[in-house]
Design a protein that fits this description.
Length: 252
């Protein structure tokens, strides 16, 4: 271990802050690169000569700073740098992650035909109760869960897509390249919310963690809605940015 990992009994900083600074320094200098697993609890306790309570405080602070993350059943890992995702054009998750140099993957949770709720029906310009296809997936970047996606499609196209490999093939690509349904534009609604139990479980985060919810309705030719999604993004892993032009003020 590096010498700066030792704690100083004469330091004005409390022990948890000293250990926090030491681990943060090792993350910054690449000793523990993004995605690397930190030593287990027993090893850290022995290295620093601190109590479990002190270590828990250290870990909580590093998580709050976005430097590390806990993966249930696996351990504690150095977090990937937060992605900055521009909202300037209609693009899919796979396209976005490849643009950032990250490896995208997906885990299929469910796919089913169900009756459209009032909200889903309104977004897809259907009558409430109309049959639609509902698909749920966890989207990952370099193996880290980043987004929990819920997608609703009209039944005619959705039942075709249900038969495809939805862990390997992006829905946007299937729509455009396999089924000849071009995507022209989309409406986005973005808000900050707290993760409920189901979303937290899917994203491997604690319930109540801050997340982004994007509601996206994609339109094809003739302004036909062809895809409605609720995308739950981890707030500690991504930020969204856009650039706006100044509206010329009216002069009276």
């Amino acid at each position: 271990m590096m010498s700066y990992m030792m704690t100083d009994s004469e330091s004005p900083l409390p022990l948890y802050a000293q250990v926090e600074a030491a681990l943060a320094a090792q993350i910054a200098d690449g000793t523990y690169p993004p995605g690397a697993q930190l030593p287990n609890e027993a090893s850290l306790l022995a290295t620093y000569g601190i109590s479990r309570t002190t270590l828990q405080k250290t870990v909580q602070n590093l998580i709050a700073r976005g430097l590390i993350e806990i993966r249930r059943g696996k351990g504690t890992f150095v977090a990937q740098p937060r992605l900055t995702q521009p909202l300037t054009e209609l693009s899919g998750f796979v396209e976005d992650m490849r643009a950032h140099g990250r490896h995208p993957s997906a885990r299929l949770i469910a796919r089913r035909v169900q009756k459209a709720s009032e909200t889903v029906a309104a977004r897809l310009s259907l009558a409430p109760g109309t049959a639609v296809v509902h698909i749920q997936r966890v989207r990952m970047a370099d193996g880290t869960p980043l987004s929990f996606d819920e997608t609703w499609l009209p039944q005619d196209i959705g039942e075709k897509i249900m038969e495809d490999d939805l862990e390997a093939e992006p829905i946007f690509t299937l729509l455009e390249e396999k089924y000849g349904v071009p995507l022209i534009e989309a409406e986005y609604r973005l808000e900050a919310i707290l993760a409920d139990q189901a979303v937290a479980r899917a994203l491997d985060i604690a319930p109540g963690s801050p997340i982004f919810l994007i509601e996206r309705t994609s339109f094809g030719e003739g302004e036909r809605p062809v895809d409605y999604e609720k995308l739950y993004y981890r707030g500690d892993q991504i930020q969204f940015v856009t650039r706006l032009a100044r509206r010329k003020p009216s002069r009276r």
